[in-house]
């Protein structure tokens, strides 16, 4: 039978389809209803068989220890996706065994059991760094010998020997693609554009080498969020930040990073689950170079003017109101309020001693009166919105406005690989935001995170009442970014272990920040045992925190130049993105609970990886429905409808060849009007079919049905993560490229 690929599938209400909502969450969450008891949502494809995993690994100094710990967790991360738990076919209870993805489908688990979800046998794995250069400033020059200050947001595949990892090919990513039944259909699974990795051992070893090979010789202005945005989202990525009469530009419209486009087009499939994992020990610290009429690049400029640096400059101070009320209209830069009392000192600028470049990006509104960074909403929108701004639409008069004029590459059906191709008006693809996850392994204490991977996070303790207005009410003191000792924590004179989270506060001299958390360093010996480790700090070693001049709670008591603990600073901006993404944002601590027992469940980043894989597993199984639905007493169906829009233009009569029906005229017109309003008139050319509903008894599921297309409302399925689910039959996997939206009309009040 000819396999027809679907671009869209939408579930709508029979009576009120015109109110179809655009929510793209995996869980079927309540939306603005057309009646008091209606709700709608978009849900993903019935069977995800591809994963594109992107890691952003900080490559600034002092990251080597964290990279090694992450490398140790790589097998757990892969196992969670490639080898799902085997569950009893009837009870859905885990059997304690893992599925073997290299065996035939019927043999992956023992008789009477099956994988909790189809093992992923088609996965791309790529790594980018946090280094985007100096954004037009004189810092982090790409030409600096022996350093990787600017990786351009491109995939990197640096191996342990300094050479690019051969297994990652010319495009610099790994492709897990074994010779198995699931990959036999080349129309849906073309051979990867890099060498296919067919062995789990080879995949694990190559992945580990990518993580540790990223290094710690990158730019100290970490652009964690912008690097991810640039690779996945920016429609027309710039090649360099150019200065024209002191004002930054992205360059001419035709100056587009072709190497990045080529990598993105090969790495990112239109129908995959996308998981982004950020590993960093510092907060996002990069400017929007075009802000303030293109002068924000100055915040990354050196400030010690000399013969060696004649273009270094001093930065303006903030007005007096900023110290206590950074959100007040009176809080601004001394550039705009020269008569303010605070602006009289030192000509309204900071001296180099008052503005150490190492800590420039903390409390910027309080200290400078302005915040030169991109807004956090840029990145949240990048993970969730179908349209994003081109470079030309980002700013108006030096202010970031983010006018959305281009299809988001993350949600496009086809991606350009060359700068001379269409970059903006791309066709919409099958992926919806429910298939995009963002995880942060960063500076937040384990003690502030819930014990269970599905328990709610108390974001007030982590970020304060409202970080967008600088309201830190309720924040835990460990999450305050400060050069001075923070109230409520042991002072610098306390013992190094006085605080179980960060050790103690310390005298930074204004050149460093207090820590969110610290952890003892360990190393695993040839015998597999873990023992405490010490990092001797040699002269001019910028990767070591114990230089003998300061006394952070990281150094050996007997040797001030020997580092025995690692650290992380509050990762406030990355965590804001995770918070704003709701169930699709995941927060984990960079400070491991323990490193002394490598086989334990809480070793290293194993808990963080488990939280990530547990969350991703939810998108590979079923969609949770938030409200009980009332079945029709006659036929047992719930009041919901499934529509599917095929990928190839043609008549609606093609539905018959799929064993589907064409929806009624009134429903079809209303549906197409709604889609056209969002995607354009061209969307009307695609056939729309109705997918039937299958009725099952409470406790049963239609998932095992491999003959007929359909969906069912399942209640109290044994082993399920929620009491009510939207489940699709196995046969519906041929709708692989679908977008699903569920809208139901519920009779009576919802609980």
What is this entry, summarized?
By secondary structure, the protein is α+β, with helices and mostly antiparallel strands.
Would you kindly provide a written description of the structure presented here, covering whatever features stand out?
Helices cover 15% and strands 17% of the residues. The chain is an alpha+beta fold. The protein has 3 domains: 6-48 and 621-745, no CATH class; 51-83 and 119-286 and 376-455 and 573-619, Rossmann fold (3-Layer(aba) Sandwich), CATH 3.40.50; 291-368, no CATH class. A hairpin with a 2-residue loop joins strand 14 (395-396) and strand 15. Helix 1 (64-82) packs antiparallel against helix 2 and helix 7 (376-384) packs parallel to helix 9 (572-580).
Give the integer mean of the pLDDT values: 86
The main sheet comes to: 7 strands, mixed
What is the count of DSSP helices, taking H or I runs of 4+ residues?
11
End-to-end gap: 45 Å
Beta-strand portion reads 15-25%
CATH names the topology of the largest domain as Rossmann fold
Class computed from helices, strands and strand pairing:
alpha+beta
> Whole-number radius of gyration?
27 Å
Q: Could you give the count of β-strands? A: 31
CATH architecture of the largest domain: 3-Layer(aba) Sandwich
Poorly predicted segments: 1-37, 747-751
- Please name the fourth-level CATH homologous superfamily of the largest domain: von Willebrand factor, type A domain
Q: What proportion of the residues is helical, as a percent range? A: 10-25%
Defining traits:
751 residues; alpha+beta; Rossmann fold; 7-stranded mixed beta sheet; globular; disordered N terminus; disordered C terminus
